[in-house]
Amino acid sequence: MTTERDFIRSLGQQFPVLAPVRTGIGDDGAVISTEDHSDLVVVTDMLLDGVHFDLHTHSPAAAGRKAVAVNLSDLAAMGCRPTAAFVSIAVPRGMNDAATFLQELYEGIGQILSEYSTTLAGGDTNSWNGPFAINVCLTGSPFQQRSVLRSTARAQQGLYVTGPLGGSFPSGRHLTFRPRLAESEWLMAHFPPQAMMDLSDGLSIDAHRLAESSGVGIEIYEEAVPVHNDVPVQISRAERFRAAISDGEDFELLVVLSDEQSMQLRSGAIEPPFPLIEIGRTTEANGLWLIDSSGLRRPLRATGWEHPI
Amino acid sequence: MTTERDFIRSLGQQFPVLAPVRTGIGDDGAVISTEDHSDLVVVTDMLLDGVHFDLHTHSPAAAGRKAVAVNLSDLAAMGCRPTAAFVSIAVPRGMNDAATFLQELYEGIGQILSEYSTTLAGGDTNSWNGPFAINVCLTGSPFQQRSVLRSTARAQQGLYVTGPLGGSFPSGRHLTFRPRLAESEWLMAHFPPQAMMDLSDGLSIDAHRLAESSGVGIEIYEEAVPVHNDVPVQISRAERFRAAISDGEDFELLVVLSDEQSMQLRSGAIEPPFPLIEIGRTTEANGLWLIDSSGLRRPLRATGWEHPI
Question: pLDDT tens digit string along B192-247?
Fold first, then answer.
């Protein structure tokens, strides 16, 4: 079985970056240089009934909202605001009351787009003998001059998250989460990250990806990882930690700051109007490591959601 | 039953254009203004197994090629060259030899992208309990200063197509057609069209769309419409004409030129290195009309491929 990660790596080899593309396969979004050398960022995600939501229990509006929200989260990770949305859908043929379904779907889409002052600018509509599928593509432009990548961290920098992790799927938070665009905008203005990505598949696997694409290692402080209230309290501490780093669909930002930025943050001169929790550090030595409360360092296996294909 | 056309119209009302989007729902692509006021164009199309191709008989490479080609055709219609491609796929879970399928799919995608010096810059890969679905999104930039819309024709202008029509689906031409990018580039340089679109759903329905969005009518000269060799010769002349205007999936360009441009063309001073066949004329009076060999004018019903949803 091929994993998504291996597959994406092979695609990156098959399709090298070619101007005007500046950053291609492997980041949260692609960066294209425009004629005035400003960044245009494009993100896309396909969501499928029975995988990313379940129309037996979730409303069309919730599915539409999520399809846009996960893409907004990718733009936040790139340090960008959305500029336009494109939605393609495949609707099951002979669906009962397709008109109502479509109306509710696009209400969910319209609602979240309007929260971010963005409009639907195009798309495609089809019906077929298959389940409901939706693809969203967003264009974005940087909050500041430049977008941020996951591949630009250096060793000995601080690792932060913007909120508690775990339990998103069972609690339904994966449908209602707020993409961290405001957080991204604030960071870009005050502490432009050295590297950034969004947590979609679980901290352990996503941190591994950031480390790998930056060519560094990462140490995570076990005690520092904030566990979300959505993770059941009756399970063991080890299980709660495992949920926080593996459940996925958190859609918080994973942020790398330089030591200088970390010091400024600690000084309290400028305080972020949102949680910005230090959970680890990049290292020279490759790999993903866990530092427990006794200071013991052991390898951390990436156990998040690796899409099999 | 809602038709795609009604649905797109209602979406256009729900999602009005909002800066930096300049042209949104309803054209072949969307136009977004960049900071230096150059046009960025985005097109997207979703193709589905059993609808746009059939993996029982068509190869993964042919499906991947078509998914890119129909989007390239949309860019040609906007007077744009491609700058980057984004491909999202949903692969049936438990597919036999998924790795080979993916390899062939991306070979088909890579082949046609490289013909147009474009690279894959991102996308999304999923598996699910549904048939194969693929969404392609392309960014593009105008061959000249500006992109071309379908909504800017005026009355009393000439209507042209870039090649013969009909029989595309049964012949398999819909999988192998060459997107008219070279034709678009030449037109933009020598005779920048007053309006343009690509013929995807059949001349009668597509001409109707161009007329409607430009607020004009269109007359089509029955004798002038070029019928493709793919249309069987043993059927009646009327049936052959019907095939040419209704079959769809031609992916030729429908071009509107001013009288001045038409006169220049006829003078032969600059000759297009491809067929550019005059098939009709825009009119003040709304509607779609057919002029037969005896000069008789009668209403032409739009009978192309209207996607039911």
Answer: 999 999 999 999 999 999 999 999 999 999 999 999 999 999 999 999 999 999 99
CATH no. for B158-299: 3.90.650.10
CATH for the B17-142 domain, from 3.40.50.720, 1.10.3720.10, 3.30.1330.10, 3.90.660.10: 3.30.1330.10
Residue A49: count other Cβ atoms within 10 Å of its Cβ.
Answer: 21
pLDDT at A306: 54
Measured CA to CA, the distance from residue B206 to residue B192 in angstroms comes to 20
> Does the pTM of the predicted model rise above 0.90?
yes
Q: Which residues contact B221 (CB under 8 A, 6 or more apart)?
A: B278, B279, B280, B291
A150 SS3 class: coil
Q: What is the largest CA-CA distance in chain A?
A: 61
ipTM above 0.85, yes or no: yes
3-state secondary structure of B7: helix
SS3 B261: helix
Q: Determine the pLDDT at residue B27.
A: 86
Burial of A100 (0-12, 13-18, 19+ CB in 10 A): exposed
Is B17 in Cβ contact with A48 (below 8 Å)?
A: no
CB pairs under 8 A between A and B: 232
- Give the residue from chain B lying closest to A121, CA to CA: B24
CB contact under 8 A, B20 and A83: yes
Give which of A10, A21, A52, A93 to mutate to test B binding, by max B Cβ within 10 Å. Answer: A21
Q: Choose the closest CB to B119 out of A16, A42, A98.
A: A16
pLDDT, tens digit, for every residue of A180-211? 999 999 999 999 999 999 999 999 999 999 99
Topology classification of domain A7-142 = 60s Ribosomal Protein L30; Chain: A; (3.30.1330)
- The whole-angstrom separation of Cα A305 and Cα B134 is 22
The residues that bridge with A55 in the sheet, in sequence order, are: none
User: Cα–chain-centroid distance for residue B3?
Assistant: 19
Q: Where are the domains of chain B?
A: 17-142, 158-299
d(CA A33, CA B210) in angstroms, rounded, equals 32
| Partner A, chain B 98-137, Cβ-Cβ below 8 Å | 98-99, 102, 106, 110, 113, 117-131, 133, 135, 137
3-state DSSP assignment of residue B250: coil
Q: Given strand B217-221, what is the order of strands in its sheet?
A: B195-198, B253-257, B158-161, B277-283, B217-221, B287-291, B297-299
pLDDT at B153 over 50: yes
